[in-house]
Amino acid sequence: MGMPKSRVQVALDGLIIILAICFFAFLDQRALSARKLPRKEAGQSTVPAHLVDTQQDVYDAYQKMGLFGARVVHLNRFFNLQEYVPRELTRPDPFPLPAVDQGRIYERGLDSHNWLYIATRTGLVRSIITVLPDSVFRLRYNDLRDNPDYSHRQNLFKGYAYDAPRSITTLDALHRTEGPVVVNVDAGYFIDGSDPAWVLSKLGKACPDIRGVVLVRSIDEPDVDRKMREKLDTFGELWKGRK
Amino acid sequence: MSRKVFENHHAVFLLMTLLAFALRAWGISGQPPFEDEVAIAHSATDYMEHGSWSLVMWEHPQLRNVVVYLSGKISGGYTAWGLRAGSILCGSMSVLLLGYLTYSLFKNRTMSYLAAFFLCIDPLHIALTRQAVQEGITAFLILAGLLAAYHGIKKDNISLSYLAGALFGLASASKWHGLFPWAVSAAAYVLAPLLIQDYKGTRNMPLRLLNGATAYLVIPLAVYTAVFIPWLDRGHSLGEFVDFQTYLVKSNYLHRASPYAETHLSIRAYQWFVWPTAWADFVLYQGKAYLDIAMGNFLVWVLTLPSLYYALKRWLEEKGFELGFAIAVFIFSYFPLLLTSRSLYVFSAPAVIPFAFLLSAYAISQLLKSGAIARRTLVIYLVTISLVSALLYPLSTMQALEYSYLKPITDLYSPEGHDRSTR
What we know:
heterodimer, A: 243 residues, alpha/beta, eight-stranded mixed sheet, B: 423 residues, mainly alpha, 20 helices, 4% strand, disordered C terminus
């Protein structure tokens, strides 16, 4: 005599539920495996810092690091997330419509104001934590607070740059960020005259797993002066000597 | 011979589907691509091959990209067919599904023919299913889900209920309009023994709840999530996926189209069945201007609210499950759109009008049966709406500017000098 129908149905439902749970777990694990960040060598406590001249050069540094799906901690007074839509993507071309590699099209329009936005479009970066200098954060606070795209609690704003989760905060308010990150430090971050050692100490506590560092001299920014670049250089030296 | 054909509902539905296909496919290669469609072609490739989130209509889920990408691959590229085949086929097959759904519910040929015919010739549905957008795809998947759900409930067939769940998951992964019929079907499944007189199913309530949770929660969630695999493959965890869905809901609520759309087009769903409303798209293509106006056949749409009233009155007298199910699907598909404070454009109507037409078909066939309206009156009405749809057809095929008799309408909607719309 076979199993009662109800038992078969319970078993079938149970099997589907288990399969669904496995499916979700598989998707989550697959996502984690898709991320590509530099590995730390055995015995290496810090990774070398890349020094670049302009903000848009950070994109090249990311490509050299082989980044994919990285979380970025971005110390700058600019967001570098200026939206850029290549003309080719909306131009009414005749049929058949071209289906080109958008990555190449986006990269052709790269500049120092949109490079991080393009990095999210091409997949190098998946999520961004923007750390603003205190004075700049105070200037932007009211606009961010009134923007319905952001939720906020004290000195932390959370929203999205298109599909990339982003937070905007100050170094003091930066929460501990678990998981590997890549850090950008722009010379323009030192606009308030912050102490590089203090910045390094705060970063180290908030980001225990830093897999890449990019230092940006911003030579194409007229407001970034020699003192700010000297602080950046000091930060770089401290980073090199960090144990 | 024609009587034999008329009595064979399979043959009639097939003929109507072929007519629907002809109306949606005619001249499609000569219809230039909208700016949105160009962006959709790029978005489809980029989403499927790189997981890059859609640039256009980005606040919606991404099934459209999957459909457009697959139809492009099958067609050998984004030709007019490669771009629009998914939408055209979904739009045509929706006519078939609405016919079968109506027949399944009411076992009435006249009613099912009317419902299918209204959808077949509706100029708004034709316009939107001639474009590579998600509206036709969503409506198709909703209708398929409802057909599977109804049969799953009536026959106590769990496989059909699983199928319904999967279809609703896909419908919602196209546009969230799929959530409303999904919820109605889930509730109907669980409460079927209470709602259906002489219900023959054998499951007790705990088993019903378990089956219902599997069919209408677990399976649709898994299918919905699967559509986002290309995006998840960019390194986004499931936690990030859930957070992002919350953000999309918020963005959807805050979404506004162009200033032209906000000021010149209908932005409230209550207007749809009260006076003629339209959505307009404009493109300048190789030096020539094209205007596409998606506007329903108002002689059909205007029957909706009186038909709803009539159907409700009948249901209160008879309390039949099938009529209650049809009314609930319409109410739950339409009323949330009425209540929202965000701007809502009539291109969202394809997820609602099949059920509006179903109720109108119900009312007409019942009044015909009772003798309240004569057969001749119905014939005159059908000829009139066919003529109106025929006259409005150029609006749906981007030929609005080529016919002088349409000038009063094109003058109303021509967005010359206004900002281009994005949905």
